[in-house]
Amino acid sequence: QVQLVESGGGLVQAGDSLRLSCAASGRTFRIYTMGWFRQAPGKEREFVAVITWSGGSTSYTDSVKGRFTISRDNAKNTVYLQMNSLKPEDTAVYYCAANERSYTNSARAYDYWGQGTQVTVSS
After folding, report:
1. Which of 47, 97, 103, 121 could disulfide-link to 110, CB 3.0 to 4.6 Å?
2. DSSP label at 73?
3. Largest Cα–Cα distance of the chain, in whole Å?
């Protein structure tokens, strides 16, 4: 069992930066991959970024490439999402997630989810 807690969301202006954190606890040794997803009002949940825990391989959705960076601190069992050049279209609830077996952008593959943190970007 793994517990995930996100933090760092808030209200910012377009062009600003924000860093989200996701702290994992419990049986964290089971984690193979951690990812970030987001969901805007009235829209489907969207993949944002993923990172493998051991090797640090990363992947991003096209809309955030060059602006967002996912990273991890294994010693602290924490994954981060550095968001630069934020746009109003980035407004959403951001969720971190973890799975035990695969490197994927499919939400179905993720075993554990955080409660979400709101990111609002004004124009």
Report:
1. 97
2. E
3. 41
Q: What is the pLDDT of residues 14-69, one digit of tens each?
A: 999 999 999 999 999 889 999 999 999 999 999 999 999 998 999 999 999 999 99
Cβ atoms of residues 70 and 60 within 8 Å: yes
Distance CA 89, CA 34 (A): 23
In the numeric block, the tokens 């179905």 are attached to 108
88 C-beta neighbours (distance < 10 Å), count: 11
**Residue 5 vs residues 17, 23, 42: alpha-carbon distances, Å:** 20, 5, 24
Render 1-65 in DSSP notation, one character per residue. Answer: -EEEEEE--EEEETT--EEEEEEEEESGGG--EEEEEEE-TTS--EEEEEEETTT--EEE-GGGT
Tokens describing residue 106: 């499919």
Residue from 25, 65, 50 nearest 102 by CA: 50
